[in-house]
Amino acid sequence: MIKAAVKSLDLVDRIQNFLKGRKNLMFYDGKRDGLEENIAFKYFYSSPKNALDFINIDIFENPSDNIYGVINIIMDYDGGYERRSSDYGEIKVEKIEIRGVDKIKVELLLNKYGVSNIESAIEYFEGYIFNKTLI
């Protein structure tokens, strides 16, 4: 069951091992660290593209609407990003403004396949951020 997988230490360890060596890597346990109610755990680390931008990986406690987690980043807007679908889930792109500066929020809404193949989903997301295209 995927619900059991999001709670499993195996998934936590797989993500931890895959992200080993990333700058500013932090891990938060949902309940222990007081995260939002539906977040089982979260990873937070500097983007390989720009160390001042941070990538978040949230895995949900109770998946809904076929969304088991999300990988996202908020970064400077420089065009070229668009909403797309992938095997790992839908990519949502939203232009936002923070303190008068144009930014962009890019999210990969992880489906069941995305969580089951989390290493590939992370690699895919980072490639999308680097290249503005699908890898």
Describe the structure.
β6 and β7 form a beta hairpin. By secondary structure, the protein is of the alpha+beta class. Helices cover 27% and strands 41% of the residues. The model is unreliable at 1-5 (pLDDT under 50). The chain has 4 helices and 7 strands.
List the helices and strands and how they pair.
Elements (H helix, E strand, L loop, with lengths): L1 H6 L1 H11 L6 E4 L9 E8 L7 E11 L2 E10 L7 E3 L2 E10 L2 E10 L1 H5 L1 H14 L4
Antiparallel strand pairs: 1-2, 2-3, 3-4, 4-7, 5-6, 6-7
The gyration radius over C-alpha positions equals: 14 Å
Number of helices: 4
Order of helices and strands: HHEEEEEEEHH
Structural class: alpha+beta
Average pLDDT taken over every residue:
83
Report the major sheet.
7 strands, antiparallel
Please tally the β strands and state the result.
7
Shape: globular
- Unreliable segments of 5+ consecutive residues: 1-5
Task: Describe, in short, the structure shown.
This protein has about 140 residues and is of the alpha+beta class. The protein is about 25% helix and about 40% strand.
